[in-house]
Amino acid sequence: MTTPTEPRRAAGLLHIDWTACEGRGLCVELLPEALDRDEWGYPVARRGGPGERTDVPLVWEELDGAADAIALCPRLALGLKRLP
Asked: What is the pLDDT of residues 15-59, one digit of tens each?
């Protein structure tokens, strides 16, 4: 368990395939703590640096929501890589 001053370690990376994504926003609705929308409606990471726009770090509590977002993505633009 982490303390309030200890950062939460990423449990997985949500990969966004920008060539398939059409910005419908379902993933943003399912993962509001991890994703936001840009001005065109495409998902963008709420955390991480500029290099993490394609692979969004997720904490353990978000893995179920990520699985739902992947399964429900109408363009199959999402994937999940679990971290050790």
From this structure: 999 899 999 999 999 999 999 999 999 999 998 777 678 899 999
DSSP labels, 9-35: PP-EEEEE-TTT-----HHHHH-TTTE
Calculate the dihedral angle through the C-alpha atoms of 67, 25, 28, 66, rounding to the nearest 10 degrees. Answer: 10
Residue 28 lies in a domain: yes
- Residue 33 sits in a domain whose CATH number is 3.30.70.20
The answer to whether residue 4 sits within a structural domain is no
Cα distance between residue 74 and residue 20, in whole Å: 10
